[in-house]
Design brief:
binds D-ribose, five-stranded parallel β-sheet, alpha/beta, Ribose 5-phosphate Isomerase B, Chain: A, 6 helices, 48% helix
């Protein structure tokens, strides 16, 4: 898969751990930054990751900040994005199986590296179940369309 990844300074250390893990798993990674620990603003990177997925340039995205909260709010403002903030393996699995999440959101100051990598692996390997869940995804898209001008 071609995976967009981005973080603010709070998520930067975890982004640097996840990148080689993805490459080792055979994925192509497009890194939208940030590239240092210097303080920066998470909406910039949420937007970049969201656009890469929404425009179809990347298959999936991973967005990281300190808690995952701010960048989750930002990435979910991009039309077509279903960003899921996951703090455990069950949420990772369900966010794919039931919600067809196309961006995984992580909090680098919330998760240990080992758990974060388990979440990434499960999230990438779990398929969307479709069926009744597709109807609910369509419902989310309908809300988005209603407010898009
Ligand atoms: C940055 O200090 C921090 O606020 C940010 O990474 C994130 O946690 C915001 O939601």
């Amino acid at each position: 898969m071609k995976i967009a990844i981005g973080s603010d300074h709070g998520g930067f250390p975890l982004k640097e751990v996840i990148k080689p893990f993805l490459i080792k798993q055979g994925h192509e990674v497009v890194d939208f930054g940030t590239d240092t620990m210097d303080s920066c603003d998470y909406p910039i990177y949420g937007e970049l990751v969201g656009e890469a997925v929404s425009f179809g340039d990347c298959d999936r995205g991973i967005a990281i900040c300190g808690t995952g909260l701010g960048i989750s709010m930002a990435v979910n403002k991009v039309p077509g994005i279903r960003g899921a903030l996951c703090t455990n393996e069950f949420m990772a699995e369900m966010s794919r199986e039931h919600n067809d999440a196309n961006v995984l959101v992580l909090g680098a100051r919330v998760l240990g590296e080992g758990l974060a990598l388990r979440i990434v692996k499960i999230w990438l390997e779990t398929e969307f179940a479709g069926d009744r869940h597709q109807r609910r995804i369509d419902g989310i898209t309908a809300i988005e369309k209603k407010y898009l001008k």
